[in-house]
Every structure is written in structure tokens, then in C-alpha cells.
């Protein structure tokens, strides 16, 4: 599974139409269908795992909090803090996925505090996303 496949699923959900979703993703409808089928096949074969990683603040020069254009380092600078596993073909898979409300603000600030303009933006986006999902469920 990759983020591109997830982007396709989100586009289909948002547009409620395969052709419109494909146009939004700048691919053909046949490619979109094939990629979604491939993702379905992958999900039927194994657990779905999501890893949540952070990068720690070091100092204002190398890890500026308010300048999102500065890279804080390569892949080696990420620290895994959580893993979410959705078991293969779990009976309540839809309910588990729909109820997920990941947000860095769900973590005790004693141990971790989201910093910077990107995280302030994410806070609003995560809340809006969860709100929309809850509306669709009801």
C-alpha cells in the first residue's frame, strides 16, 4: 500500500464517481480501477499497518519551528511513536477505521507537544476530517 493508492480512495469517496475521481488524480478511469483493485487485493492478504513517526526539535538553527521550508533531516531523523494495526478481514473493520481519530493532540503534552504552523494547520484539518466522517456515518 502506498499514499498514491490512498489518494485514489479519497478521490473516489470525495467525488462519488470513478471518472471524476480519475480526472482529479490525472489518471485514466481504467488505471484508477486497477490501482484500487490492487489495493483491495493487498488488504485481503494481510493486516493494514500505519506507523506514526515524529521528528524532535533540536535547536532553532537546524530545526526551525515556524519555517516549514527547512528540512529537518532525512528518514533517519524520524522516531516511531505508535503503530496502528487493523487485522486482516476483521469483523468490525469498517467500524474500527471509521472511529479512528488520530491527532497529535491526543498525546499527553508532558511527553510530546506538536509545534509550529504546520501542526496548528493539521489540528484544524484533523478535526474537520473527523467531523465529516462522523456526519457521513449518521
Characterization of the model:
The protein contains 5 helices and 2 strands. With 138 residues, it is mainly α. It has a domain at 1-45: Arc Repressor Mutant, subunit A (Orthogonal Bundle). Strands 1-2 form a two-stranded antiparallel ribbon. It is globular and about 50 Å long. The mean pLDDT is 82.
Task: Give the mean pLDDT.
Answer: 82
Radius of gyration: 18 Å
- Pattern of helices and strands: HHHEEHH
Helical segment count = 5
The coarse overall form would be: globular
Assign the CATH superfamily of the domain at 1-45. Winged helix-like DNA-binding domain superfamily/Winged helix DNA-binding domain
Proportion of beta-strand residues: 5-15%
Strand arrangement across the biggest beta sheet? 1-2
End-to-end separation in angstroms reads 29 Å
* Spans of at least 5 consecutive residues with low confidence: none
Fold-level CATH name of the domain at 1-45: Arc Repressor Mutant, subunit A
Derived from helix and strand composition plus strand pairing, the structural class reads: mainly alpha
Task: Please tally the β strands and state the result.
Answer: 2
Biggest beta sheet summary: 2 strands, antiparallel
Second-tier CATH architecture of the domain at 1-45: Orthogonal Bundle
Helix content: 40-55%
CATH level 1 name of the domain at 1-45: Mainly Alpha
Amino acid at each position: 500500500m502506498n499514499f498514491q493508492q490512498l489518494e485514489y480512495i479519497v478521490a473516489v469517496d470525495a467525488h462519488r464517481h470513478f471518472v471524476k475521481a480519475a480526472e482529479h488524480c490525472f489518471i485514466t478511469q481504467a488505471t484508477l480501477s486497477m490501482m484500487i483493485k490492487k489495493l483491495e487485493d493487498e488488504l485481503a492478504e494481510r493486516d493494514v499497518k500505519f506507523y506514526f513517526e515524529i521528528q524532535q526539535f533540536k535547536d532553532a538553527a537546524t530545526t526551525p519551528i515556524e519555517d516549514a521550508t527547512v528540512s529537518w533531516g532525512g528518514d533517519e531523523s524520524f522516531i516511531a511513536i505508535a503503530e496502528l494495526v487493523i487485522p486482516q478481514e476483521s469483523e468490525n473493520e469498517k467500524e474500527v477505521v471509521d472511529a479512528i481519530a488520530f491527532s497529535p493532540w491526543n498525546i499527553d503534552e508532558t511527553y510530546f507537544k506538536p509545534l509550529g504552523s504546520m501542526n496548528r494547520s493539521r489540528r484544524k484539518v484533523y478535526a474537520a476530517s473527523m467531523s465529516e466522517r462522523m456526519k457521513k456515518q449518521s
